[in-house]
C-alpha cells in the first residue's frame, strides 16, 4: 500500500499543459461538455464551462434545460449551449410512451455529439428532478460506451450515490465530492461515517470499493485517490468559501484530464493516470487563482473574480511563450 504524499502540483501543471503550437487546429486543446443547468441553477454550469475555456480548452458546450439555456447563453457568447434536457413538469401531461419518446430525443441530441468530446462534466447545477436524472444516467451509459471520461460533481453525485453502478469500475470516471457529498458517498458505499483520523485510508478504500474510480475529496486540503495511490494538494488558497469554487474545479479537472490523456501517446508518459494528474493540476491551479483573487478583492472575492485569475495563475506557472 502506498502512502499519502503532497503532490507537486506546479510541476504537474507544467507537464500536462500543452505548448501553443501553431500547427494545432481548433479542438486539439480540448472539447468539453457540461451536463447541467436547470430552472434553479444557471451559475454552476456557466462557471464550469467558462473555466474550461479560460484555462485553454478550445470549445466548451453546455447541455441544460430549455429554461436555463437563454440565461446561460446571455452570460457568455463563448459557450455553445444546447437546450435539450427536460424536467418532469414539462412532460407530466404526456403518456408513458410519449415520455419515452422525449427521453430518446434527449439522448439522441447528446449522443450525436458524444464522440467529439474529450471529457464531460456531469452535475453542476443539474438539480434533482427524477425524469432529468434518469436521462442523465443514460447519458453516462452513452459516455461509457464511447469511452469518454467524465467528472461527476454536484447533483451528479446525488445521482451516482444512489446508483453506484453508473460509475463502478469505469476507470475514466472522476468524482469531486464536497463535504456533504463525500459524507453521503461514504455512508452509502462503506456503510460507516467519515473518519477524519484515517482520512487517507478511508478515501483509498472508498475509491477501491467503487472499482478504482478517481475521487477528489474537496476540503482544507484536497485529497485524491484511485484506490491505489493517495495524493494531497494543500497549496494555500483562500479563506473565502463563496459558492461556485467547486464548479471551477470540475471544469478544470476535465481540461487537465484531457491534456494528460494526450501525453499517453507521447514518448514520456507519466506514471500516474490522467485522472490523478488532472485532479492534482486542477486543484493546484484553483488554489493559486483563489489566493490571487483574495489578494485583490479580500472579503468581496467572488467566484467570477477567481475565474478572472485562472489565466494569470497558469501563466505564472507555465508561460505561453
Ligand atoms: N451559482 C450557482 O448556480 C451554484 C449552484 N450550485 C449547485 O447547487 C446544487 C447543490 O450543490 P450544493 O453545493 O449546495 O450541495 P450540498 O452542499 O450537498 O447541499 C447543501 C444543502 O442543500 C441541500 N440540497 C442541495 N441541493 C438540493 C436539492 N436540489 N434539493 C434539496 N436539497 C438540496 C442538501 O441537503 P441534503 O441532500 O444533504 O439533505 C444540503 O443540506 C448543485 O447542482 C451545485 O452544482 C453550487 O455549485 C454553488 C453555485
Ligand atoms: N476549508 C478550506 N480551505 C481551503 N480551501 C478549501 C476549503 N474547502 C474547500 N476548499 C477549496 O475550494 C474548492 C471547492 O471546494 P468546495 O468544498 O467549496 O466545493 P463545493 O461545495 O462543491 O463548491 P460549489 O459551491 O461550487 O458547489 C476545493 O477545490 C478546495 O480546494
Ligand atoms: Mg459543488
TrEMBL record:
CDD domains: YXKO-related (cd01171)
Binding site residues for ATP: 218-222, 237-246
Keyword NADP: yes
Region (Disordered) residue spans: 1-25
This protein's UniProt keywords: ATP-binding, Lyase, NAD, NADP, Nucleotide-binding, Phosphoprotein
Residues that bind (6S)-NADPHX: 125, 178-184, 247
Domain named YjeF C-terminal: residues: 9-317
Coiled-coil intervals: none
Catalytic activity: (6S)-NADHX + ATP = ADP + phosphate + NADH + H(+); (6S)-NADPHX + ATP = ADP + phosphate + NADPH + H(+)
Similarity annotation: Belongs to the NnrD/CARKD family.
PANTHER family: ATP-DEPENDENT (S)-NAD(P)H-HYDRATE DEHYDRATASE (PTHR12592:SF0), ATP-DEPENDENT (S)-NAD(P)H-HYDRATE DEHYDRATASE FAMILY MEMBER (PTHR12592)
Role according to the record: Catalyzes the dehydration of the S-form of NAD(P)HX at the expense of ATP, which is converted to ADP. Together with NAD(P)HX epimerase, which catalyzes the epimerization of the S- and R-forms, the enzyme allows the repair of both epimers of NAD(P)HX, a damaged form of NAD(P)H that is a result of enzymatic or heat-dependent hydration.
NCBIfam families with a match to the protein in the record: yjeF_cterm
Protein name (record): ATP-dependent (S)-NAD(P)H-hydrate dehydratase
Organism listed in the record: Camelina sativa
Amino acid at each position: 500500500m502506498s502512502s499519502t504524499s503532497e503532490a507537486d502540483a506546479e510541476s504537474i501543471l507544467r507537464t500536462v499543459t500543452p505548448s501553443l503550437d501553431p500547427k494545432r487546429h481548433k479542438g486539439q486543446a480540448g472539447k468539453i461538455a457540461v451536463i447541467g443547468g436547470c430552472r434553479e441553477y444557471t451559475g454552476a454550469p456557466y462557471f464550469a464551462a467558462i473555466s474550461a475555456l479560460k484555462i485553454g480548452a478550445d470549445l466548451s458546450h453546455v447541455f441544460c434545460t430549455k429554461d436555463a439555456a437563454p440565461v446561460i447563453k446571455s452570460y457568455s457568447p463563448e459557450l455553445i449551449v444546447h437546450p435539450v434536457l427536460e424536467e418532469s413538469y414539462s412532460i407530466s401531461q404526456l403518456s408513458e410512451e410519449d415520455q419515452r419518446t422525449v427521453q430518446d430525443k434527449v439522448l439522441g441530441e447528446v449522443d450525436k455529439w458524444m464522440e467529439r468530446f474529450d471529457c464531460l462534466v456531469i452535475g453542476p447545477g443539474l438539480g434533482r428532478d427524477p425524469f432529468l436524472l434518469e436521462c442523465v444516467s443514460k447519458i453516462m451509459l452513452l459516455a461509457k460506451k464511447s469511452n469518454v471520461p467524465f467528472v461527476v460533481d454536484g447533483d451528479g453525485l446525488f445521482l451516482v450515490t444512489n446508483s453506484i453502478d453508473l460509475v463502478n469500475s469505469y476507470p475514466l470516471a472522476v468524482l469531486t465530492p464536497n463535504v456533504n457529498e463525500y459524507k453521503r458517498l461514504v455512508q452509502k458505499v462503506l456503510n460507516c461515517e467519515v473518519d477524519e483520523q484515517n482520512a487517507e485510508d478511508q478515501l483509498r478504500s472508498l475509491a477501491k470499493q467503487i472499482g478504482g474510480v478517481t475521487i477528489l475529496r474537496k476540503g482544507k486540503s484536497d485529497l485524491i485517490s484511485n484506490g491505489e495511490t493517495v495524493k494531497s494538494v494543500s497549496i494555500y488558497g483562500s479563506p473565502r468559501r463563496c459558492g461556485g469554487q467547486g464548479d471551477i474545479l470540475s471544469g478544470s479537472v476535465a481540461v487537465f484530464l484531457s491534456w494528460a490523456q494526450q501525453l499517453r501517446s507521447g514518448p514520456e508518459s507519466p506514471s500516474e493516470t490522467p485522472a490523478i494528474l488532472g485532479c492534482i493540476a486542477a486543484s493546484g491551479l484553483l488554489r493559486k487563482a483563489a489566493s490571487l483573487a483574495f489578494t485583490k478583492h479580500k472579503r468581496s472575492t467572488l467566484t467570477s473574480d477567481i475565474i478572472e485569475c485562472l489565466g494569470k495563475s497558469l501563466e505564472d506557472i507555465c508561460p505561453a511563450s
